[in-house]
Amino acid sequence: MKKIGFIGLGHMGGPMALNLVKAGYALKVFDLTPSALKKLSAAGASTTASAIDAANDVDVLITMLPSSPHVNQLYLGECGLLKTISGQPLIIDCSTIAPDTARDVSTAASKRGLEMLDAPVSGGVAGAEAGTLTFIVGGEAKALDRGRAILECMGKNIFHAGDHGAGQVAKICNNMLLAIQMIGTAEALQLGVNNGLDPSVLSNIMNKSSGNNWPLELYNPYPGVMDNVPASRDYEGGFLVDLMSKDLGLAMEATLSSKSTTPMGALAKSLYTLHSSQGHGDLDFSSIQKLFSKKGSKP
Amino acid sequence: MKKIGFIGLGHMGGPMALNLVKAGYALKVFDLTPSALKKLSAAGASTTASAIDAANDVDVLITMLPSSPHVNQLYLGECGLLKTISGQPLIIDCSTIAPDTARDVSTAASKRGLEMLDAPVSGGVAGAEAGTLTFIVGGEAKALDRGRAILECMGKNIFHAGDHGAGQVAKICNNMLLAIQMIGTAEALQLGVNNGLDPSVLSNIMNKSSGNNWPLELYNPYPGVMDNVPASRDYEGGFLVDLMSKDLGLAMEATLSSKSTTPMGALAKSLYTLHSSQGHGDLDFSSIQKLFSKKGSKP
Amino acid sequence: MKKIGFIGLGHMGGPMALNLVKAGYALKVFDLTPSALKKLSAAGASTTASAIDAANDVDVLITMLPSSPHVNQLYLGECGLLKTISGQPLIIDCSTIAPDTARDVSTAASKRGLEMLDAPVSGGVAGAEAGTLTFIVGGEAKALDRGRAILECMGKNIFHAGDHGAGQVAKICNNMLLAIQMIGTAEALQLGVNNGLDPSVLSNIMNKSSGNNWPLELYNPYPGVMDNVPASRDYEGGFLVDLMSKDLGLAMEATLSSKSTTPMGALAKSLYTLHSSQGHGDLDFSSIQKLFSKKGSKP
Amino acid sequence: MKKIGFIGLGHMGGPMALNLVKAGYALKVFDLTPSALKKLSAAGASTTASAIDAANDVDVLITMLPSSPHVNQLYLGECGLLKTISGQPLIIDCSTIAPDTARDVSTAASKRGLEMLDAPVSGGVAGAEAGTLTFIVGGEAKALDRGRAILECMGKNIFHAGDHGAGQVAKICNNMLLAIQMIGTAEALQLGVNNGLDPSVLSNIMNKSSGNNWPLELYNPYPGVMDNVPASRDYEGGFLVDLMSKDLGLAMEATLSSKSTTPMGALAKSLYTLHSSQGHGDLDFSSIQKLFSKKGSKP
Q1: pLDDT at C237
Q2: Nearest CA to B59 among B95, B28, B100, B18?
Q3: What single-letter DSSP state applies at residue A226?
Q4: Catalytic residue annotation of B
Q5: Which CATH architecture fits B169-292?
Q6: Span A95-119, pLDDT tens digits
Q7: CA-CA distance, A118 to A161, in Å (whole number)?
C-alpha cells in the first residue's frame, strides 16, 4: 500500500486526509494547528513535526494550502521542499492558487525530476467530507494516471483540464462564471419581485427556460424558494463571500496578465468586494441577493 | 370549432398561425404584408382587409406584434380595437412588450368586459414552426384555462407567471439573465483560451460543475465546440443581437420604473448595444463572443 | 412691466419666484401647497386658486415641476393649459424632464401659436436663492431673446443648447458626467487612502494634474478635505442622492431611446440606486464616498 | 557640479537626460539601444557599456524603465545594482511601476544605506522635451530636498505624495480617474450628439458647469471641437491607449492587493483593453470616443 504525505489539514484538507486514512492508506500528516493534527492522529495517521518530515520518503505528496504565497513558500522558499525532499513522490497540490504559481512550482519540481499536478477542487466542505469533490487537474496525463486512484478516494469527478496550471485556470474560469450567474440570478429574481412576481414562480419558469443555470437548479439565492440551501438559513455556511472574492481576485489577475477582457467578471469582483466591505464576508456567496433588496423589504 | 382572429404574421406569428390552421381551427388573419397573408391563405385561413375585420366576432383573438407602441396603437389608438370590436373574444397578446403597456391594455379590455392574457413566447422561429414554444402567461387563471388548448397547439410549455403583465415581467427577467450568462460564458471561455485551455475541454468541465448554464448545455458561443449552434455557422440565424438588445431595453425600463438595481443587466445592455453599433445587430446573440476575442485571433 | 405667471413654488421654484418679485415683476403664482403660496403672497405676489388662473393673460408663464408626468399632465392633460389658456405668453418650463416630453409639449404649444423654451437649471437651492442659477435652454433663439431678461433675474449663466428639448439633453449629459466623475473621484481617493495616502495630499495632486474635475475643485467627497462642502457635515444638504438618481434615470431613458452606449453612465445609475436603497437617498450625492469605505473605517 | 548616472533613454528618458546635460550636469548614461546612446553622446554625455558602469560613483542615479519587472531585475536581480553599486548616490526611479515593487526596491536600498525616491512623471513626451513634467514623489522629505534641484531641471511641478511607494500610488489614482472621466466625457458627448446636440456647444456648456474636467478643458475627445488635440488629428500621438491600459492594470493590482472597490476603474480597464484588442492600442487614449460612435456615423 502506498505511503502518502499530506500537508494542510484545514476545513478542506482535514476531511480529505481522513478519507484517505479510511481508504487504508498510510498517511504522514502535518499542519501548524495542533488540534488539526490530533484529529488525524486519532483516526490513525502518523503526525510529523514539520512539513519536510511529512514530505520525505512517500509515494504521493498532497498539499492543501490557503493561497499562492503559502504554496510558493512551502515549495520554493529558502528551505523549500523542492530543495530538501527525499524520494520520488508524485506531488499533487490541491490548493486554489494563481496559475503562474502553479506553473513555477511544477517547473521547479520537474527540474528535480518530480512529477506534479495542480488539482484544485470544488464541492466545499460537504464534498470534502463525503468524498464527492470535483478535481480539476493540470499536468501530464501519465502523472494523472499515477494519482487517479488516490483522487478517487476523495472525489467523484476528475477532470483533466490540460497541462501544468490548466487545473487552476479552469477552476478560476468556472468560479468567475459562477459568480456572474449568481449575481445575475439575484438581480433577475429581485427585478421580478419588485414588479410583483412570486420568486418561486419566477425561479421555476427560468429554471425550465433559457435562463437556467446551476444556482437556479441547486442553490437559489432568494430566501424561501428552496429548502436546504444557505438562502433559507440566513446565508450561513456554504461557500463564503470572502472565498468567492479571493477566487475572483485570481480571475482578475489572470485577466490582467493575459490581456483579456472580462467586464462581467470585473463587475462581479467589485460587487463581492463591496458586499464583503459592508460586513458580509463570512456569509454564503448567495447572500449577494441582499445587495439588491430594498431597504426595509425582504430579504 | 372555435373561430380565431390572428393579427401579425411575421417570422413568429406566421408559423404560429399555421399551426392553428393545421389543428383545425377556423382562422381570420391580418397583416400589413401581402406575402404573409398569401401564405396563410394557401394553408386555408381566410384573410381580411383590416385588423378590425380579423378581430370581430371571433372566440379568441391573438396578436403578435413587434413592440409596445404597436400594441398600444392597435388596441388603444384612435380607432383602436377596444373601441370598435364586436363579440366577446378572449384576447391573447403574444408580443414581447413593456409590462406597463400590457397592464394598460388589459385594464382597458377589462372595462369593455373582455378577458385578456399577456403571453410572450420563447423558443424562436424554430419553436414557432415546430409548435414547441414556451408561453409565459400573465392574467387570470380562468382566462388561461379558456385559452390553454389553443396555446397548446403552438407550444409545449405554458407557464402562469401571475396577474396581468406578469408574463412580460417573467420573460424580461429570463432574457436579462440569459444575456448575462451568455456574456459571462463568453468571457470565461475566452479567458480560458487566452490562458492556454481548449475551449471544448473547458466547456465540458464547466458544464458538469457549478458554472453550468443553458448556453453551456445547448448553445455554446465558442466556434467549434458544438455542432448545430449559431457559433458553428458564423453566428447566422438564431436569436438576433438586436432582439436581445430590445429585450434588455425592456428590462432596463422595468428596472428604472421599479427603482431596482441591476448592474449586471445594465452592463449586458451596454455590451449588446455596443456590439450592435459595431455592425453585428443581425447576428445571433451568442456572437458576443467576438467582442472578447483578440484581434487577429479566432474567433 | 411684464406680467408673469409662475406655477410650482417648491424648494427651487419658491426662491426663483421671489427673485422675480424682488426684480419688480407682477407675479401671479400657484402651487398645491398653501404654505408655499403664503410665502409668495407675503412678498407681494398675487396668488391664484388654480394653475389656469395663474397662466391666463400673462406675458411670460414659468413652470417648475418635479417630473415628466407632472409637466405632461399640466400642459397636455384633459384640462391641460394648452387647451384653455388665454393670451400669448412665452412659456418657459424650468423642470428637469425627459427631452421627449419637452418636445411633445413645445410642439403642442407651437400648434397653439405659443413660443416655448425648455430651461432646466443647475445650481441647487442655494443658487435659486442667490439668483445665480445656470439655465440650459432649448428652443428658438428669438424666444430665448424674448425671455432672457427674466432669466437673468434668476440666474447668472444662460446657455443656448439648441432646439426644443436640447436644454434637457444638455442638462442630462452634464449630470451624467458629474455622477461619473463624482464616483470616480470617490474611488480614486479611497484607493489612495487604502494604500496609505493622505486624502488631502492626493486631492491636491490630482486637482493640479490630469485627474482634475469639478468635484476635486469645489465639492470634494472625502470628509475633512474641504470646508463648507457636504462631505464635511455628514453629507447633509446639497444635491440629494435621489435627485441625482432621478437625473441618471432620464439619462438612461435617453440612452435607450437613442440606442446609445453609456456603460459608465449605466454603472453610475446602478451605484446611486444601490446607495439609495441602503438608506442614503436624502444625503448629498457626494456621500457615494461611503460606498467605497471599508467597514469600521472612516468615512 | 554633481555627477548623475542615467539608465533608460527611451521616449521619456532620452529628453529628460538631455535637459540635465543642458543644465550643465556631468552625465553617465546607459541604454540597450545604441541609437539612444548616440544622441546623448552627441549632446555631451558620456556613455557606458553597462548599467553598473553608469551607476557607480555618481551623486544621483536616475532610472526610467518600462515596467515593474524591469525595475525589479535592474536593482534586485542576480547581479542587481544594489548588490554591486559603489558610492552613495541618491536613487530616483522615474518609472511608473507597482507600488509594491517601489517599496521592495527602496527597502533594499535602505538596507544598503542608500536613499531612494519613487518619482513617476506625467506630462508625456512633450513635457519631457520641454522640461515641464510633473513629478509625483514618494520617499522621505529630506531625500526629496536632496534631489529637488535636479528634478526641477526636468519638470515644473514636484509633488511630495508621501512615503516610499506613495508617488506610484498617487500617479495610479490620478490616471485611473483620468481614464474614468475621459470615458465619461466621451459617453456624455456621444449621448448629446445622438440626441441632436452640437458637440462643441455641449462641450462648452459642460466645461462651464459641474461636468467640467481636465479632458473638457484641454483634451476634448470629440473630433473637431478643439484644435491641437489628438481628436483633431485622427487620434495620433499623445498618450497611447496601451499605456493607459498599462496604468489601469497597475490600478487594478493596487485595488486587488488593498481589497478596495473600484467598479468605475474596473470598467475603464475593461473598455480600454477591449478598445486595444480591436486594434486601437497605439492611438491616443481619447480615441475611446470611437467605441461609442455608431456604425457609419462620425467619429
Answers
A1: 82
A2: B28
A3: S
A4: 171
A5: Orthogonal Bundle (1.10)
A6: 999 999 999 999 999 999 999 999 9
A7: 10
- Assess whether pLDDT exceeds 60 at residue B296: no
For chain A, the average pLDDT equals: 95
First and final C-alpha spacing in chain D:
53
Which burial class, exposed, middle or buried, applies to B228 when counting CB atoms under 10 A from its CB (0-12, 13-18, 19+)? exposed
Task: Give the C-alpha separation, D124 to B22, whole Å.
Answer: 72
Confidence of residue B299 (pLDDT cuts 50, 70, 90): very low
Work out the pLDDT band at D157, boundaries 50, 70, 90: very high
Apex B77 CA angle, B73 and B80, nearest 5: 100
Q: Which residues in chain A are contacts of D276 at CB distance < 8 A? A: 259
Which of D183, D205, D294 faces C264 most closely, judged by CB atoms?
Answer: D183
Domain residue ranges of chain C, discontinuous segments joined by +: 3-163, 169-292
Q: Considering the entire predicted model, what is its pTM?
A: 0.95
Evaluate if residue B94 carries a pLDDT over 90. Answer: yes
Phi, psi of D221 (to 5 degrees): -80, -10
Grid cell, residue A184, equals 445575475
Closest to A186 measured CA to CA, from C280, B213, C265, B261: B261
Looking from the CA of A177 toward its CB, the CA atoms found within 13 Å total: 36
Interhelix angle for B241-257 vs B166-194, to 10°? 120
Chain B residues within 8 A of D279 when measuring between CB atoms: 295
| CATH superfamily for domain B3-164 | NAD(P)-binding Rossmann-like Domain (3.40.50.720)
Number of H helices, E strands in chain D: 14, 9
d(CA B27, CA B41): 10
Measured distance CA(A65)–CA(A295) in Å, rounded = 39
Residues in chain B: 299
Say yes or no to pLDDT of C278 above 50. yes
Query: How far is the alpha carbon of A221 from chain C, nearest alpha carbon, in Å?
Result: 18
Nearest to A295 among C278, C291, C295 (CB): C278
Same fold, D3-163 and D169-292: no
CATH of C3-163, one of 3.20.20.70, 3.40.50.410, 3.40.50.720, 3.30.300.30: 3.40.50.720
Catalytic center residues of C: 171
Find out whether B259 and C252 touch, Cβ atoms under 8 Å: no
Q: What is this model's ipTM?
A: 0.95
Lowest mean pLDDT among B18-27, C120-129, C130-139: C120-129
C227: pLDDT strictly greater than 80 = yes
Judge: D267–C268 Cβ closer than 8 Å, yes or no: no
- State yes or no: pLDDT of A237 exceeds 90: no
Chain A positions contacting chain D at CB under 8 Å are 249, 252-253, 256, 259-263, 266-267, 269-271, 273-274, 276-277
State the pLDDT at residue C239. Answer: 93
Contacts of C274 in chain A (CB under 8 A): 291-292
* A267/D249 Cβ within 8 A: no
